[in-house]
Amino acid sequence: MHYLIVTMGVHEMAACCDYLAERVTSDDTVTVVGLAPGEEAHATRDAREALNVAAVRLPAVGDVQTTLLTDVDDPASSLLEAVATADANELLLSPNDERSAGLATTGSVVQRLLGRSPIPIVVVPRTDL
């Protein structure tokens, strides 16, 4: 199985890793895309730190690949491109906004992806809020 995780920060990455912890084996592959929209230095730093979390939190995975996308103007389109090139079986996302994390609604990026993604999307709840 090949999982694609999209994250903007450590908390989102941790939630996705917790979700995968009981599901992955050494035969699985995980590709993590750190998304840093805009030109803000802290967004790039947060996404880069999230990428570092993946290898540490997913030791059972046979192969963990990471990519950092910076200065992203249209996150949904960038993520659809990542889905197309990653050849993944499942896309994992977690809310990056404390206002939407625990609510029954999804953010605008997830809403745009739901109707356009060729693979299943799992929205993983954050447990740190």
TrEMBL record:
SUPFAM superfamilies reported in the protein's UniProt record: Adenine nucleotide alpha hydrolases-like
Keyword Metal-binding applies: no
Gene3D superfamilies (alphabetical): HUPs (3.40.50.620)
Coiled coil: none
Residues in UspA domain copies: 34-125
Origin: domain of life: Archaea
UniProt-listed Pfam families: Usp
UniProt keyword Chloroplast, yes or no: no
Classification via InterPro entries: Rossmann-like_a/b/a_fold (IPR014729), UspA (IPR006016)
Keywords, comma-separated and alphabetical: Plasmid
Protein name: Universal stress protein UspA
Species for this entry: Natronorubrum daqingense
